[in-house]
Design goal:
This protein has 256 residues and is an alpha+beta fold. The chain has three domains: 91 residues, Class II Histocompatibility Antigen, M Beta Chain, Chain B, domain 1 (Roll); 93 residues, Immunoglobulins (Immunoglobulin-like), CATH 2.60.40.10; 47 residues. It is built from two helices and 14 strands. Strand 13 and strand 14 form a beta hairpin. InterPro entries: Ig-like_dom, Ig-like_dom_sf, Ig-like_fold, Ig/MHC_CS, Ig_C1-set, MHC/Immunoglobulin, MHC_I/II-like_Ag-recog, MHC_II_a/b_N. Pfam families: C1-set (PF07654), MHC_II_alpha (PF00993).
Length: 256
């Protein structure tokens, strides 16, 4: 599949308060089977064209101020027509060169500090890959799991590659082992897998914590009391021995 990147626009603009610089971008790309039109700021997507639903999609989070992109979808259609024409010209001119691909780099880590029996999330970060399509799957103790799985959108990086986040809701238990497996064309069939296991030093559940720590405190208190009694008795015995020695010497001196 040939891929042609039609337009890459990178602009530097001032924010409303004229104090901060932001990098805005718009990317239009196409292949013989796919279309892509994305715009954003500072490496984060804020809008993309959905050519299946024939509409533009605002991808800002719910808490962000709503933005309007009048005419963006129409201009994306025009850009796609130009992209397809340029794609045909490039294929003919360069005699169908092999598609450039970059393999992903994958890491896995927990979202919060791990405690047994406490809900948490595992995050699988896949970055540095091109082109965008990538497949991510999860396993728990060698069994494929899909419940509680979430996937972010593809996000562009400054070097032209992409990154994406996948997360899985978990409740850590002793000896649990999770894995995140990534498939991408640049890996040439060699899937990339990262494994994460519940650490042996994981803190106990808060439901057990107070009982354990209270028991430990009571034990330490008993040990402290026993140690104090031992030294008290030892000190008393030492004083009695010293007094006996002094009385013995006094009696010897008197009778002399």
């Amino acid at each position: 599949m040939e891929l042609y990147l039609a337009i890459l626009t990178l602009a530097v603009c001032l924010s409303a308060d004229a104090q901060f610089l932001h990098n805005d971008f718009k990317i239009n790309g196409c292949s013989d089977t796919e279309k892509e039109s994305v715009c954003g700021s500072d490496g984060e997507e804020i809008w993309h064209a959905d050519f299946i639903q024939q509409m533009g999609v605002n991808t800002l989070p719910d808490f962000a101020d709503a933005l309007r992109f009048p005419g963006f979808y129409e201009s994306s259609i025009a850009a796609q027509e130009a992209c397809q024409q340029n794609l045909a010209v490039c294929i003919k001119a360069y005699e169908s060169p092999p598609e450039e691909m970059d393999p992903p780099e994958t890491s896995i880590y927990p979202k919060n500090d791990v405690q047994l029996g406490v809900e948490n999330s595992l995050v699988c970060h896949v970055t540095g890959f091109f082109p965008p399509p990538v497949n991510i799957s999860w396993t728990k103790n060698n069994v494929v799991v899909t419940e509680g799985e979430r996937l972010s959108r593809y996000r562009p990086r400054n070097d032209g590659t992409f990154h994406i986040f996948s997360s899985l809701d978990i409740v850590p238990e002793e000896r649990d082992i999770y894995s995140c497996t990534v498939n991408h064309r640049a890996l040439q069939g060699q899937a990339q897998t990262k494994i994460w296991g519940v650490p042996e030093t994981t803190a106990v559940s808060p439901r057990l914590g107070p009982a354990v720590f209270c028991g430990a405190g009571f034990t330490l208190a008993l040990l402290g009391a026993a140690t104090g009694i031992f030294f008290f008795i030892k000190g008393a015995a030492t004083r009695d021995t010293d007094m006996a020695e002094k009385e013995k010497h006094f009696m010897q001196w008197t009778y002399q």
